[in-house]
Specification:
heterodimer, A: about 260 residues, alpha/beta, about 20% helix, globular, B: about 290 residues, Glutaconate Coenzyme A-transferase, 11 strands
Chain lengths: ~260, ~290
């Protein structure tokens, strides 16, 4: 299986985050999370719901890239105009996204870097729906480039998503919906199962050591029962290829390396 | 009504909500008319795309209320970034869900609506949002999302009649209904204008997403969403978006390129991009 790419291994690892999630909306933003949600639905968790990326719910995940506009077959309807009512504010969703920064509490940032609220050094997207997503439903993250610039020391520059930071909790607030699940990177898989929801490594990609991961991380990591991240099998690779007919996944991780270096 | 009449009725310092979502179904012809005017010091409330970017670039915006500003395929709106990084904007940054909640509070004449969103993030502190405690047994602490009261809402619709019976028939109506209801006055530009809706499309009444009592004026502007998308009629114009984004770097000065992206009037603008026919031929985006 020397031809399995690291991106494909990451898709397979990300799809595990959706295993057994039930009848909720699985949202993968970006090629790897999106392919992962589709792979999960077509293999171990068929009850997952997902959209065509526009307004319709589909039972057959929509392939990435150019295709006929009407190729998707709508089974249901979930436009932006009812997304908060139906999916987000009822907790019936698991989103996997790539924020610009994440810190040791799982707080994320996609608003701005450096400077101040009134004059940011680098303006990014804005907080989008992340304050709501993170207080209401499950969230996981994918980082194609695991470095201390992304997994940052201290705290993120602008807390756009709720984490497990006790200093940020207002007395009487209901934080029962905060549910951070997995972080998949080009080096490893982590979860929030450490002391007080600390981030811990639970699997290392082939050829990567815990020390390698720690060296690229801006905060101290805990160690779970670490295994080697498994490679996708022939069935999973076939499904990934069908969902990504134009090979967009090859452009996600720098130089598109193999999962196992030779 | 003409777009000029609508813009002439606006005044400096107004709070203006703009319908649509990012690069989708934006009332760009009305935005261009504002860009041709002397209006200034506006507070803009929008799920932002090039509408926000252009108004910021032209120095029309005093304060921006937003959850994101993005062109989707070009994720970071370059003219909005320039304005933010220069420190020239007052802002209120909100979550997408809180944003529509604030419009609903305004629509119902409430000072705020409670929500959990914002707790545990920097939004509340940076935006000056207050908390409120449930008076019931649970005693839960919630964010009090203030009403986003609008002086005016601008919306681009697929179809309307002269009375303001609006039809929206894209796959998604976004939050246009709530922009209209949150505003003292809502103006609608449309692709197709008929005299009496009941004489032409009586079977389509379910497309009437908000009632005509929320519509102050209607103007016929085919192609009026360009360069944003107008499903199912036409898609966004990626070539135009790319040129617009590139201009933020080179020359980087709005006054040097405003004529290209705004035009002397709407006819001149449409002619410069190949006319209404060219807009109608733009393919729908694939997600």
């Amino acid at each position: 299986m020397t031809d399995v790419t690291l991106a494909e291994l990451c898709i397979f690892a990300c799809s595990e985050a959706f295993r057994g999630n039930g009848e909720i909306v699985a949202t993968g933003v970006g090629p790897v999370p999106r392919l992962a949600a589709g792979l999960a639905k077509l293999t171990h968790t068929p009850e997952l719901m997902m959209t065509d990326g526009e307004a319709y719910l589909v039972e057959q995940p929509v392939p990435i890239g150019p295709r006929g506009y009407d190729d998707r077959k709508a089974a249901g309807y979930l436009p932006f105009s009812r997304f908060f009512d139906s999916a987000v504010w009822t907790g019936r969703r698991h989103a996997m996204v790539t924020p610009t920064q994440i810190d040791r509490f799982g707080q994320i940032n996609l608003s701005y870097l450096g400077g101040t609220y009134d004059k940011p050094k680098i303006q990014m997207l804005g907080v989008r729906g992340f304050p709501g997503n993170t207080i209401y439903h499950a969230n996981s993250f994918f980082f194609p480039s695991h470095t201390a610039r992304t997994l940052v020391p201290g705290e993120v520059d602008m807390v756009s998503g709720v984490g497990y930071n006790p200093a940020k909790r207002v007395a009487g607030g209901n934080y029962s919906g905060v549910d951070l699940r997995r972080i998949v990177t080009n080096l490893c898989v982590m979860d929030f199962g450490g002391t007080d929801n600390a981030i811990r490594v639970i699997s290392l990609h082939p050829g990567v050591s815990f020390e390698d991961v720690q060296a690229e991380t801006g905060f101290e990591l805990e160690k779970g029962d670490i295994v080697e991240t498994p490679l996708p099998g022939a069935e999973e690779l076939d499904i990934i290829a069908i969902l990504d007919p134009h090979g967009v996944r090859a452009s996600v991780i720098k130089d598109n390396p193999a999962a196992r270096s030779t | 009504m003409s777009a000029k009449d609508i813009v002439a009725s606006l005044s400096d310092g107004m709070t203006i909500g703009i319908g649509g979502w990012g690069p989708r179904r934006k009332p760009m012809a009305l935005v261009r008319e504002i860009l041709r005017s002397d209006l200034k010091d506006l507070t803009i409330v929008a799920y932002g795309g090039a509408d926000v970017g252009m108004l910021c670039a032209a120095g029309k915006v005093k304060k921006l209320v937003f959850a994101f500003v993005s062109l989707d395929a070009i994720p970071l709106e370059p003219w909005f970034r320039k304005a933010r990084e220069s420190g020239s904007l007052e802002i209120l940054e909100l979550d997408e869900g809180m944003f529509q909640w604030g419009l609903k509070a305004a629509a119902f004449g409430l000072p705020f609506l409670p929500c959990r969103v914002g707790l545990g993030t920097d939004l509340a502190e940076l935006g000056g949002l207050k908390t409120v405690q449930s008076p019931y047994e649970d005693g839960e602490t919630l964010i009090a999302m203030p009403a986003l009261k609008l002086d005016v809402a601008l919306i681009h619709a697929n179809r309307s009649d002269y009375r303001g019976n609006v039809h929206l028939f894209g796959a998604d109506v976004y939050y246009d209904e709530w922009f209209a209801k949150a505003a003292d006055k809502a103006y609608v530009s449309c692709e197709e204008l008929v005299d009496k809706m009941e004489d032409h499309y009586p079977d389509d009444a379910r497309l009437n997403v908000f009632e005509r009592c929320f519509v102050t004026g209607v103007v016929h502007m085919p192609g009026g969403a360009h360069p944003s998308s107008m499903p199912p009629a036409y898609g966004w114009d990626m070539k135009a978006f790319k040129a617009y984004a590139a201009a933020a770097k080179d020359p980087g000065d709005w006054s040097a390129v405003a004529d290209k992206f705004v035009g002397a009037d709407e006819d001149a603008y449409l002619n410069s991009i190949g006319g209404k026919e060219a807009v109608a031929a733009l393919p729908l985006p694939i997600f």
